[in-house]
Design brief:
Number of strands: 18
Oligomer: single chain
Radius of gyration: 22 Å
């Protein structure tokens, strides 16, 4: 038999690799440097993050939870309390990214991170945008939801408020350096911030018609790359004068010792009576019993108190009622 030349073998390998890549699923990318958004919590108090956490999720955990990213700072306490009440749940996979990004990953069937693919899906998903659940319903992945928390919009400024910013109308001042949550994947902007800015006739002025992430709208307005949690860091570093955030971000930034402070907004601008955090148990979850346990836990005084310590507003008994996704 004639010996096959090395370059022929290399070419065949290239074709096979290309064919495998073409057949591989297109998965949602996790932005670089986001290890802290991908974690596994163990009942012994330890946790892992990044690639190690994704590997463990793929291998198997007792419960998997993908949630709106601004809850990240509350989750060690919230999940720790849950695991104390249910010691049989020894490992919990947690992803805290913008809910629109998570929704796409659920539909696609997983994530890519650092050049690797992870075929994963959660047992329970939370968002602040009902449209995300409608997309999951259309994909046959969810049918019911309930409300478990509330929040409200606020402004964040440098400590001492040196630019004398007192409300949404001030965002129209052309010389302010403004950071806004991106309107592509962040529900805080696409659902709530847009409504408030339009009310003040500022939406077109600030965005200049651009719906993007990690980019500039108006010359003085920057949209976050991934999270609105980029805003406290920018103001603390002196790179921004003001940002639109959840009120809970101001609470967390104060705990972190950042040189920032919050500016409260009236109800018509904060939308305090409209902001709902909603949760849905997914139909393709592998650990539905544990998802049900967690859903029940969210309704307890212990869970609500844990969230309240981070500035979230408690849900009512009526909020907890399970509803069909419209």
């Amino acid at each position: 038999m004639r010996k096959i030349r090395p370059f022929v073998l290399a070419f065949i390998g290239f074709l096979l690799a290309r064919a495998a890549l073409a057949k591989s699923p297109k998965l949602e990318p996790i932005p670089s440097g986001r290890d802290a958004d991908v974690r596994v919590f163990f009942s012994n108090g330890k946790n892992i993050s990044g690639i190690k956490a994704l590997e463990r999720m793929q291998k198997g955990v007792d419960f998997s939870l993908w949630i709106a990213g601004n809850q990240f700072f509350a989750m060690p306490e919230v999940l720790g309390t849950f695991q104390k009440e249910h010691p049989e749940i020894k490992s919990i996979g947690l992803i805290t990214l913008p809910p629109g990004k998570i929704m796409r990953a659920i539909i696609d069937g997983g994530w890519t991170y650092q050049g690797r693919q992870f075929l994963l899906h959660p047992d329970l998903y939370t968002t602040v945008d009902l449209a995300h659940l409608k997309s999951l319903k259309k994909a046959g992945l969810a049918s019911r939801y309930f409300t478990y928390l509330h929040n409200q919009l606020a402004l964040m400024v440098a400590k001492g408020n040196p630019r004398h910013i007192h409300g949404i109308a001030d965002l129209g001042r052309p010389h302010l350096r403004i950071f806004l949550p991106n309107p592509v994947t962040e529900g805080i902007m696409s659902v709530y911030g847009e409504e408030t800015l339009k009310k003040h006739h500022l939406w077109k002025k600030l965005t200049q018609g651009k719906i993007c992430a990690g980019c500039w709208g108006a010359p003085n307005v920057y949209f976050t790359r991934v999270h609105h949690r980029e805003i406290p860091k920018a103001i603390n570093a002196g790179r921004a004068d003001v940002g639109l955030v959840w009120a809970t971000e101001n609470v967390h930034a104060a705990k972190k010792g950042y040189a920032v402070q919050g500016v409260s907004l009236p109800a018509q601008d904060s939308l305090k009576n409209k902001v709902n955090y909603i949760a849905s148990i997914l139909k393709n979850g592998e650990r539905l019993k544990n998802a049900e346990l967690y859903a029940s836990y969210l309704k307890t005084k212990e869970a609500q108190a844990a969230y309240a310590r981070y500035g979230f507003a408690k849900a009512s008994a009526a909020d907890f009622k399970m509803r069909p996704i419209p």
